[in-house]
Predict the structure.
Amino acid sequence: MSLWRQWGTLPNVLSSIRLALVPVFLVLLLVGNFALALIVLAFAGITDYLDGYFARRLNQVTRLGQLLDPAADRLYIFSTLIGLAVTQQIPLWLAAVIIARDLMLLIVYPVLATHGYGPLPVHYLGKAGTFALLYAFPLLMLANVWQSASILILPVAWAFALWGVGLYWWAGCVYVLQVRQIVKFGTSKNH
């Protein structure tokens, strides 16, 4: 299927909308409009669910969609980290720990490429970590918007955040070990 036809599928249109809303979300967060930023983030979460649902249901799983969906997830995580850290809703160390994991993985991508491999499949630990973080951030924002309920929301939000960080790093380590195995025992896919 051509790139243009892939782009025109319903799941990829939804992913494209989600990607286009990343800067809108970040600006709203940075200017302190947390309620509207939370609405944009919730809408993005709904489109994230729907793009996967429709891709499977309509048999429209495409290579473009397999790239757009995780890219949108990473951009939302990254922009949320920046926005929440800048607005001092999370400590800087939390943003640094999550970003450090992604930087670690950025280093291994060229190693895979030199051995003839593209990115390895997403591990379920990474999906679980991303899932937890994508719940933690809206809850942290909700605690700021609905301050009278923050005593109930914050413990749940921080539980998701800490579990998300742990799973995120665990998945990163698994990924690095997989790359190590490829380098140590594998040869180039081209051989």
